[in-house]
Amino acid sequence: MAVSDIITGQFVRISQTSAGVGDRIAERVIDMIVIVVYLVSVSFIFGRWISGLGDTFTVVAWLIVVLPAVFYSFLLETFNHGQTLGKMAMKTRVVKADGSTPGVGDYLLRWLLLLVDLHFSCIGLLFIICTRNNRRLGDMAAGTLVIKLSGYKRLHISLDEFDYARRNYRPVYPEAARLSLRQADVISKTLYGSERYNADQAARLSAKIQGYLSITRRERDDAAFLTTLLHDYQYYALELV
Question: Residue 214: left if φ>0, alpha if ψ -120 to 50, beta else—which one?
């Protein structure tokens, strides 16, 4: 499962984990079971009554009954915050790739491409397996992805953290882009944590990072090196290019 860290234009850091192939298959199986149970139940309860309405009214009545099943995914995702019953069971949700909430048009596009994704040789499953964020064609077209709710976090960022950042800022260590959000947080806590700065911890962390990133530092002072590295990471995270 791929984890992506995003910093929005409103300076909100979003960490989200895409749902795995197993989750996607399980949620779809649950949804198909729900649809089948609905159709069987409606047929059993209203079948005889609908059949006695006459040819024209029977066709119209069956269309009305079947439409909720046909539009199941679109209706549930649109009016249930990106979740079908299968997604609720698997604790997953549809979001935009930038972490925002999809619009009605996005949900509609995902639904329209279900015909291709699921019913034409299950090509959608192939894309889910092969793409980085486990996205089917409908997701790629709508700019959405399905995420695990347990891996979704929103964190407001103080603009004071980025007072050094300017359009003409040039990173010193391109390798800083390889740092994860958690690793950058460790650096930040080492430098600015509530406890008093510990030179030994900074030295050990500096040595560990140099080995991990395979870089040669330019600063003699450990604190200066870690500060530069953190600024470079934030530069790439904010995409100040």
Answer: left
The whole-angstrom separation of Cα 72 and Cα 38 is 11
pTM, full prediction = 0.61
φ, ψ of residue 139 in degrees (nearest 5): -65, -45
Residue of 131, 158, 157, 156 lying closest to 145 (CA atoms): 131
Please report which helix (H) or strand (E) contains residue 9, including its range: none
d(CA 120, CA 126): 11
- What is the CB neighbour count within 10 angstroms for residue 128? 24
Q: DSSP per residue over 212-231, as a string?
A: HHT-----SSHHHHHHHHHH
Contact residues for 42 (Cβ-Cβ < 8 A; gap 6+): 65
Residue-wise pLDDT tens digits, 39-63: 999 888 877 776 666 666 767 777 8
Q: Is 66 helix (H, G, I), strand (E, B) or coil?
A: helix
Beta bridge partners of 92: 148
- Please count the other Cβ atoms lying within 10 Å of the Cβ belonging to residue 66: 14
> Look-up: residue for tokens 């891996």?
151
Contact 233, 176 (CB under 8 A): yes
